[in-house]
Recover the amino acids of this structure.
């Protein structure tokens, strides 16, 4: 028995085994697999990495329209950062992110926990909450912009005037613009996120809840000591993903306010869009994009670390 162990662990046999792995049928299967993946890899390189690298390089050049004129180093970055609207765009992006954590991050968790407790009509409620996610994004934002219309015939103002109250400015009031846009974003996306949390909740061992009930634990105590600890991994992942996604918000303020009033809803990515398509300045547009990318490197790193950790814990 000992002799066999020594033979199997000998370096020569290990080398021969390794050579056999990369020869014959296995090697040909690997070649076929790589050939099948090649079109997808080429598409990924062409449509993802090539624009990314080109955009970073373009941020170091003076441009006329979309044509390169000359290399100016960090000139575009200096022009962008010293622009009066940059600080507003940066702070607004942070504000979007913070408000989304207050509303768009907590509401799906609460909805998922409550839906998990409902036995009757559970499917109906799931569909009802998920339905807004099925509506195309632009249609959702234009619909809510119409509801927020500051005129008397706006949907919300029509309701206010019908009960004897004065119309409100809604999106025209700078203090509330970002909050109202985040409400729209939350309404359109919380249903899908809640279903993800529900899938995690259904994986919790029900015997834990039964044992807690026998010990006299209430609903809130079960959530605190059983539910949240068991879904903390997916909660952290979704939180970081939300930070990364919302910090890059662009379509919502573009379609609902255009960045106004007075840059009150302007975000970094919207500023990049305006540089590129309103002012036809590709260099500064790419510079804003690179700055946004550098800001998001840290949360992206944590996202991948947590994702890998969760995959490892599931595999054990």
């Amino acid at each position: 028995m000992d002799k066999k162990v020594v033979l199997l662990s000998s370096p020569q046999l290990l080398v021969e085994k390794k050579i056999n792995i990369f020869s014959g049928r296995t090697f040909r299967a690997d070649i076929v697999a790589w050939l099948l993946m090649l079109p997808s890899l080429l598409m990924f390189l062409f449509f993802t990495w090539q624009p990314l690298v080109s955009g970073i390089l373009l941020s170091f050049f003076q441009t006329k329209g979309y044509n390169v004129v000359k290399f100016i180093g960090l000139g575009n970055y200096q022009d962008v950062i010293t622009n009066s609207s940059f600080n507003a765009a940066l702070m607004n992006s942070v504000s979007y992110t913070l408000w989304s954590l207050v509303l768009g991050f907590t509401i799906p968790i609460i909805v998922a926990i409550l839906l998990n407790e409902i036995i009757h009509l559970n499917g109906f409620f799931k569909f009802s909450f998920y339905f807004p996610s099925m509506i195309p994004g632009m249609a959702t934002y234009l619909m809510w912009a119409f509801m927020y219309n500051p005129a008397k015939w706006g949907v919300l103002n029509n309701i206010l005037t019908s009960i004897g109250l004065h119309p409100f400015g809604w999106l025209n009031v700078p203090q509330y613009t970002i909050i109202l846009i985040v409400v729209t974003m939350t309404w359109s996306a919380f249903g899908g996120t809640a279903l993800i949390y529900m899938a995690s909740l259904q994986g919790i061992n029900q015997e834990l809840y039964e044992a807690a009930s026998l010990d006299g634990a209430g609903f809130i105590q079960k959530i605190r000591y059983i539910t949240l600890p068991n879904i903390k991994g997916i909660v952290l992942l979704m939180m970081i993903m939300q930070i990364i996604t919302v910090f890059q918000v662009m379509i919502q303020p573009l379609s609902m306010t255009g960045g106004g009033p007075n840059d009150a809803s302007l975000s970094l990515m919207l500023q990049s869009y305006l540089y590129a398509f309103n002012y036809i300045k590709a260099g500064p547009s790419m510079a804003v994009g690179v700055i946004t990318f550098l800001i998001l490197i840290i949360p992206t790193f944590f996202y991948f670390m947590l994702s890998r950790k969760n995959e490892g814990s599931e595999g054990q």
